[in-house]
Amino acid sequence: MPDKKIEDRQTNKDNFLLRLKKKLSDRHIYSVFVVIIAVMIGIGVYIYKEKANYETYLQNTFQNSFYEGAKYIDDVDNLLAKINVTNKPNQRVKIFTDLYREAASAQTNMGRLPYNQETMSTVLKFLTQLSDFSYAMLIKSADNQDLTKEEVKQINDLSKYATVLSTKMAQIKQDVSDGNRINWGEIQKEGEQTMNMKGSASTKAVAGSISGVKKDFQNYPTLIYDGPFSDHIQKMEPEFLKDKAYIKKDEALKIAKDFIGQDKISKIDMTFVTDTKQKYVIPVYRFAAKMKNDTNKERDYSVILDITQQGGKPLWMLNYNEIPQTNKELKLEDLSAKTKDFLNNKGYPNMEVNYYEIVDGAVVFNFAYEQDGVTIYSDLIKVKVSLVDGDVVGFESQGYAMTHKERELPIPKITAEQAKKEVSNTFKIERVKLTLIPLNSKREVLCYELKGKNGEKDFLVYVNALTGKHENILEVIKNENGVFTQ
Amino acid sequence: MKERRIGYIILVSIMIIVITISINIVNLSMVNVVAYTWGSRGTMVQQIQQKLIEWGYYNKEVDGVYGYDTWYAVKTFQQKNNILADGIVGNATLSKMGIFSGNVAYAATEKGNLYTWGSTGEKVKEIQRKLKEWDYYNGGIDGDYGYNTWLAVRKFQGKNGLKVDGIAGGNTLEKIGIRTSAKTSKSSAGNVSRDVNILAAAIHGEARGEPYEGMVAVGAVILNRTKSGKFPSTVAGVIYQPGAFDAVDDGQINLAPGKQAISAAKDALSGWDPSSGCIYYWNPATATSKWIWSRDIVAKIGNHYFGK
After folding, report:
1. What is the span of the domain harbouring residue A90?
2. What DSSP string describes chain B?
3. By the CB < 8 Å criterion, does A23 face chain B?
4. Which residues of A fall within a CB distance of 8 Å from B296?
5. I need a labelling partner for A447 at 20 to 30 A (CA). Which of A24, A183, A347, B204 fits?
6. Which of residues 182-221 of B touch A (CB under 8 A)?
7. Predicted interface score ipTM higher than 0.90
8. Is residue A15 one of the residues assigned to a domain?
């Protein structure tokens, strides 16, 4: 008799509600509610205060970055103006040192502000380049070289834009001291959208004046100098590929299959084609393959491979099957010899292993090109090889693609013996070798590589084979995870 | 009369609930270093879950999140081992689990010699001796790493600008002047591992569920930013730049990264770049900024577009 039951429950429920109503009319129960509400309010106030504390803390952190950033930008502006007053390289060393440091500090502080990325990237790029440029000039000045006409012009340009920026910052500071408060929280929220400001007037003013910087920097010149952030770096052409013919999709597919190994693939598809209108990107055909020996059968693909449209060369490959843990690992010497053969077969002759690092059951070998016994460190290929079966599970040749060509190597002006005299007495040299190394600016210099020990540590010292100058010093780290430099 | 009594019971119970809630709020806002309980996350929790699985107390995923299942497993473990069954993993529970015994590494990410609560032996004596010489420690040199030693190590770390965690590991031992076996200070710090943890966390927060090459690509974008000049020049600077990454803004970066994210971070640091040198990416379905669409699309991987 289900109906009866429901009825019963209904009456029970009614009774319960009735009783509850009765209870509520009791004074004591009301007081209980009053207490609950009081406690709730208490908690609310507590949480609110906590939140206000955090907000203030955050606000102060941003405020700190803003004022410090403004101060450094001001300094930078003043320093740049001073350079034109000097007439000797050694007088400039101090100014460039200060510029290098202060511009970097300004960059760090400005990078912490929650402005929208578009605006900020302009400001940050300017400060980075200024710091980097100053460093290049610092090295030159310390070498007692005078500034060229072009460099004087660059400094004047930079000075002009530093003034623009410091004026903007001064203006914002003025606004703030007039009683407007910068609400960084609001700026952060508005930063996401592009300047369709809904915030308060002062927020608008602050964000508005900073976003104005972008307009002022519209004609900011291309800055080319000997440093890693110089504009020429982004605009480099792939030397290895640039004169080669474009290939068709089917050809690319064939190359991809050959590279991975036709017999190992169970399925292969093209997943992406780079638009060739893109500038400063190596256009590729991207392939994704499912392998016969995949550990995870449900995954759509386990190997990704890019074949360059120009020249049809494999640019990079990754196999993301997990490598099983075993104690039976292959010998590194055998693996490196095998990998060298692999590269040779794929059309990369004369590659020599320099460093390696063991990562999760695989070893990553760094191969560099060797020309007439000279190691060309720019022409770099990384190959990741499984320690379990020696299969190639990763390939990366972007460095090689960007720089590889047959070079005309300069003839050393100093001998190896002279180079050896350029290092400290405590440095015990074990081996000397001629190498072509890329500087941070990607400029290549012919160097003697002096390998040796200073105390217990291993170092590589690079002495310019033309000038005898120290170009770089690297520490060699050797341990159970590999041999690499830092 | 009866109703009155019920009223009081309700009152008292509600008060108790309210008090516990507020205590919890206060507790949660304090970062508790030594105890792990509801809401704790990280490699340490993963280690606890691992141990509980080994002994059959826990059969869920090792996700590094201390939720109900972990709590229940810990409680059962505590009951079985005659520890106060409060579901809080403190020092007693940890040492019973064997996580702190001898030279066993403290966290999965760190290898080498670490000394902390429960450690014993000659090395601990040496630490105590050194700390005593410099007036950080005033207990006995008994080779037993207890509260006083822990406190002294913390004091020492604070004074010397080290991470104050009360664990005498590589850097702390070096500062104290105790030589660890030759390689420890650098054995885990290769080229690749330097930024691996923070990068893996960013990849996990931003791109988990994406295809593997999409995860590597997100890592590569972060690394490309450090080299572009338009962004801060360090990995941490780029990741924590305000408003740069959603996963940082909403705190997802604090989740413990999964295995895939860690491998992806390593591949990105080794130089693999499926993004072809991009410095932006966005999800076309959720991107709020109109400006981002003015970027050229260089690559499409999974749910992300990549641009320069």
Report:
1. 49-235
2. -HHHHHHHHHHHHHHHHHHHHHHHHHHHHS--SS-B-TT-BSHHHHHHHHHHHHTTS--S---SB--HHHHHHHHHHHHHTTS--SS-B-HHHHHHHTSSSTT--SSTT--S--B-TT-BSHHHHHHHHHHHHTTS--S---SB--HHHHHHHHHHHHHTT---SS-B-HHHHHHHT-PPSTTHHHHT--TTTTSHHHHHHHHHHHHTTS-HHHHHHHHHHHHHHHHHSSS-SSHHHHHTSTTT-HHHHTTGGGSPPPHHHHHHHHHHHHT--TTSS-SEEE-TTT---SGGGGS-EEEEETTEEEE-
3. yes
4. 275, 278
5. A347
6. 183, 186-188, 190-192, 211-213, 216
7. no
8. no
